Amino acid sequence: MRNILLIARREYMEQIRGRAFRLSTIGLPALFALILGVVYLSSRGLGAHKHFVIASSDPVLAAAVRSQLLSDKGKKAIVDVVTPADPKTRSALTVQVQHKSIDGFLWIDATGSVPTASYVSQAAGDFMTGARLKDALDNGLVKEHLAAAGMNPIESDTVVKGIRVTTFQVKKDGSVVRTNAQASFWKGYVMAILLSMTTMIYGLNVARSIIQEKTSRIFEVMLATAKPVDLLAGKLIGVAAVGLSQIAIWLIAGLVIVGSPMAASILTGQFSIHFSWMEGILFPVYFLLGYLLYSSLFAGLAATCETEQELQMYMPLAAAPTWLSFAMIVPIINDSNSAWSILASLFPPTAPIVMFLRMASEIPPAWQFAASISLMVASIWATLWFSSRLYRVGILMYGKRATLPELLRWLRYS
Q1: Are residues 142 and 204 in the same domain?
Q2: pTM (2 decimals)?
Q3: Ranges in the chain, pLDDT < 50
């Protein structure tokens, strides 16, 4: 046990003192804060102070569209109306767009039974303005028809504004809480990405460490004082401690950033995000289980490889369960309790990611958590049993490619 702790301490200190650990630990929260700041600053002025012209042969419809555009107080747009409009007017407006006198003009042809519209501007990719103009045109057209049918403006505004649907979720204890499907999905998605990213990165760190020590022949010195199993166990524990330390720093930095006034203005209202105590407990549990599963698998693969380039050839195969987990996002969103969702959350390689995607929609039953964790523990034991036997022989093998018959001989040697 003493040797295991010494090796774990060596791995931990070696990695946290490295430049990559410092840059990633500080860089990720800084990048997140920068992105949040850019979103905050850009959203405040996004689409604001635009100068539009609405040209139409129907002055009532043009006025209704202008009213809809000016109703958005946050955009503070300048909207002019030109009516009646003819081909000469269109040419003149095109010249104004060319010289940037106006940002664009909305041309509404109301001569037919069904009005048609086109938007002319210099920005080909301004899809947000296009969507905003489409909504204003749709609402303006509805208001015009309602006014023609005799409805007063106040009632037509109420009809056009529509009804907001508030969603609620019934908990297992019978309590009813307000929810937001979009916010819940993104919360589960971000946690699943963070989980997969950290488990894969630190699993690969274990593999690369083995390759480096194997090529430098340092194992031959270390084996004089420690058993191969102690070396592998210490390496897994030390790298796991590095991962937990980094995640803890990220979580503290994330809480500080999310608690700032800048983030509060973005993450409030319908985009508020809440974390339960169960998610806080299960995240480190599934991180450790996922890390041990992938790192033990990578350790066995690394012991059979001579170089990092050879190890990278196996990475797509090892990362396939992660891709499979994210490929099941659509069926999980549609029905988190479907047979496929339950099976994927019980299958050990995909369980950590799929379980958090399911939790974003609905907390699964306790027996599924118990079954998922039990199956992961069993699979970790089986993978460690297999990888440790490859590790004991493979770390001392040089200059010989490990074929399948050779791997079977290594298992018999152990």
Answers
A1: no
A2: 0.61
A3: 269-271
